[in-house]
Amino acid sequence: MPIYNAPLKDMDFILNDVFKADEFWQANENLSHVDMATANAILEEMAKFSKNVILDLNRSADEAGGAEFNQGEVKTPAGFKEAFKQFAEGGWVGLGASEEFGGQGMPKMLTVLADEMIWSTNPSFMLYPLLTVGAGMAINDRASQEQKETYLPKFYTGEWSGTMCLTEPHSGTDLGLIKTKAEPNAEGSFNISGTKIFITSGEHDLSENIIHLVLAKTPNAPAGSRGISLFIVPKFNVNADGSIGERNAVAAGSIEHKMGIKGSATCVMNFDGAKGFIVGKENEGLAAMFVMMNYERLSMGIQGIGAAEFAYQNAAQYATDRLQGRSATGVQSPEKPADSILVHGDVRRMLLNIRANNEASRAFAVYVGQQLDITKFSTDEEAVRKANDRVALLTPIAKAYLTDKALDSALEAQMCFGGHGYIREWGMEQCIRDLRISQIYEGTNGVQAIDLIGRKTTKCSGAFIAEYIADIREFAASMADSKVKAAAVQVCSDVEDLTQFIVEQSKTAPDFSNAVAVDYLHAVGLLSFVYMFARISQAAAAKPEAFYQNKLVLADYYVAKVLPDLAARAQRIKAGSELIMQLPEEYFTAQS
Amino acid sequence: MPIYNAPLKDMDFILNDVFKADEFWQANENLSHVDMATANAILEEMAKFSKNVILDLNRSADEAGGAEFNQGEVKTPAGFKEAFKQFAEGGWVGLGASEEFGGQGMPKMLTVLADEMIWSTNPSFMLYPLLTVGAGMAINDRASQEQKETYLPKFYTGEWSGTMCLTEPHSGTDLGLIKTKAEPNAEGSFNISGTKIFITSGEHDLSENIIHLVLAKTPNAPAGSRGISLFIVPKFNVNADGSIGERNAVAAGSIEHKMGIKGSATCVMNFDGAKGFIVGKENEGLAAMFVMMNYERLSMGIQGIGAAEFAYQNAAQYATDRLQGRSATGVQSPEKPADSILVHGDVRRMLLNIRANNEASRAFAVYVGQQLDITKFSTDEEAVRKANDRVALLTPIAKAYLTDKALDSALEAQMCFGGHGYIREWGMEQCIRDLRISQIYEGTNGVQAIDLIGRKTTKCSGAFIAEYIADIREFAASMADSKVKAAAVQVCSDVEDLTQFIVEQSKTAPDFSNAVAVDYLHAVGLLSFVYMFARISQAAAAKPEAFYQNKLVLADYYVAKVLPDLAARAQRIKAGSELIMQLPEEYFTAQS
């Protein structure tokens, strides 16, 4: 059976040594209720829950085929109900939610680490509370006080749950195409009609009620994305006293059969004149969705870290246990029939790639979490402005770069197992199947790259990235000389140069940026990870224990062995878009 | 449902225009029975069989859970039996086998193309005849005339089938560790006892008898890989008249539950004093296996091409049909609610990556097939020597580089589908699951890389690659100036330089080459694909039709957008092995 132990020491190192969380929390009156002792207690509790309660349910759910659908009802996999009850009773649903409505008010830089453990051990399970948290965030930000009071406390006890209903069969990335209609009723409510697909947790048996947040178009709404409104559509109508009333006209039509995350019910939802209540103002639905988008997209990145950490731990253990061949430098374990495969450089290369990306990813998630906390809790306007820009810039990296590297990592981990990696019982192939969705949903990684290069870069003529690079340079200047420092300085110049090139080219070639977007996203991802290793190195440098000194080796490994990808990315960007755009559309499907 | 149309025009172009197969066949008396008319007729027949017979069975087999195991018996998926009968009656099992024993005697440079179609449409199905072909090759090369006459004709009618039994639970890459015993009997046979795992087609219901080729150790055999012998162990003993006799003491203990290729039965085989017959000489079993290894490993590369071609066709069709967003250069399809996603450079980038790798891979498979044909059919000793060295050098590329690029391709194809790519009914996720094994079995791609950099490069001080580079330079010199020519010349120098560096470093650091092997394999893969595009370009340059001229654009795309990976590979190789090897083994599993 797969193993998992939460990387608590690493998490403490990142929070405490790298980002000095205690100082940060104490300096902010809205966060002064948090300290490292609380943080560590929370992480230790989640370490137990993830390992002891949901890890085994992950494989059993997949083996049993996942969530089951029958006549509009969804049965979650065996054990999920009890585990969710325990999860809800532990207050985990509202860990990062406002205390006013029953949440725990914990900062994002802490919750990302708790979330990572759930993503490591049971991604299908994670998706049930995740959507509730997202729906709660949108309601908290945009809904009326009455709506907040009606729904949020129920979310954070786990009694009710939430969904986000955006996608329709013909409308995914391009939400301007949605057809779901919202007809106003006399008393202020709306009748919602249409079909939504890919609705995570659209129907299930973990909660008494399911509150759908639905994008729809009111009569005479402007065409495209400016004419979209957001509605609350409960599965069961809610009575004036807050109790559950009649069934609303919304139902799951089927669930999808997927590559992975089979324990998570992905539903087709049919709205047949269902009663809905507008959230915020008419035609501002997309903006309301974007409020929680930065959080949700960071969550996908954490799904990546979680899976890659799980993959790493299992692959490292297998490599240690598996005896095959002998070291090229001479027999290492003469008492055994063969040496462990860790004597082979190629196996170490794979494990070090994974570990380097994992440690940088985890630091990066905490960094972005901290930026989100500044936007939410800081009272310093300029700090909030800067953090907002930083979050805007880095959200596509958090979502797409982290999940791209995570899939690479999970594939390399599987390869460490040889043929056994392909066999279900070892859990590696499920890890890959479950992880793969993180690159696809919440906007594909290609769409993230286009967001980064367009709205976040060319639109502001590179201002966001310039400010980021300035911060990295300032940090590097504070470091003693090292390979990581030198690399950070160099990568700042390289990415600056690429950004200028892109901004220039985009002025005359409107389709240029789309064609080089993924390469640019990876360039900024590499810059970000070198920055993280710079921060890790500075925090570790003065400490003599192997735990810290090995981090300096890993940082050097990153610079020597992972960072070279930047050379390829830069060459591709400089090669431009012409060869991509010049062939006619027919070329792609012509019989060859 | 997934679509597939065999790329017959491309196959004809590669055989006829690029490799001038007709001239090659006619110039060789052992191949003068083949011509392009025959070749095209064969490919057209296989195009029909693959599309009409086995394509639909691919998904139905996977959906139904694959091969079923019950009390030692394996039931293949619905439809496989009838399809295999049709396949065998068509003479496909022995397409490339010797006419003396009932084969069709077709050259490898042709059979790789027929094989590609089966890999595209039903990889699980392909594995049943594939192992028979492999076993037939080993018997043909090493067995006695009587053994050949007993088994080979039965293989090529499809009445009997074959397996290769190498791996044991504790012994995979390191076959020197095997424990299966062969005790001699008085009459010359042996009693074989032991357990073999991961035995493809070890048990099934497609043939009357199954002939296992088994590696085992005779009493007092030398330790390690020099003490391994090869045995024929039939499921049913064969009577003197060739008819089927009693059941032998070999049986499947279970089948594996895998990530993919579920229709293929992967068996645990228990040999309990089963009667076996030695093939060739005692202690030369591993050498006998290596006879067919080059063919088998090329087959895995073709599995890659097949999957990536299937993935490409489906993704290109989906991208053409899917309307979402508008072109950045202005609306392209005003009559539709949105433009096709082919207007987005990022989608084109993915499709062009796949297509470029597919076309180069296919040409490369034919090129390696031609080299194998020279080793088998040529009467020119120096040509055979040279082709043997070339095959030795390029087999790891054919196996590992082609399958690595194929997985990248299948993942990009899945991404073109957005969320739909994750849903089973579109077939993309199965394609990835089925393909993934090609990187793992027949020696993992890491093991291939170590074979390339060790036995094929440092061992001969780079002589094989030097001769390959000399040929590429000679070819480039025959070309008119172009970007591809310039790139080929440059890459020859780059790889020459890397090779020298590796040969030098390996003299003092015995574990150096293992640590940089995969990067070197990819460098030689890039060199090979640029060479293929040089040959493709020269064949296409003079022809004005779009089909040919678009190949020149694709070649330029390859140089501009794929080849830059070489810069990253070179940097990694130059960064050496020290950072990989220096951390202690405990580091990898220490709690973090």
UniProtKB/TrEMBL annotation, chains A, B:
SUPFAM superfamilies documented for this protein: Acyl-CoA dehydrogenase C-terminal domain-like, Acyl-CoA dehydrogenase NM domain-like
Pfam families noted in UniProt: Acyl-CoA_dh_1 (PF00441), Acyl-CoA_dh_C (PF12806), Acyl-CoA_dh_M (PF02770), Acyl-CoA_dh_N (PF02771)
Residue span(s) of domain Acyl-CoA dehydrogenase/oxidase N-terminal: 41-159
Cofactors (names): FAD
Annotated Acetyl-CoA dehydrogenase-like C-terminal domain residues: 469-584
Residues of the Acyl-CoA dehydrogenase/oxidase C-terminal domain: 283-450
UniProt domain Acyl-CoA oxidase/dehydrogenase middle: residue ranges: 164-272
Organism this protein belongs to: Acinetobacter entericus
Keyword list, A-Z: FAD, Flavoprotein, Oxidoreductase
Family: Belongs to the acyl-CoA dehydrogenase family.
Protein name from the UniProt record: Acyl-CoA dehydrogenase C-terminal domain-containing protein
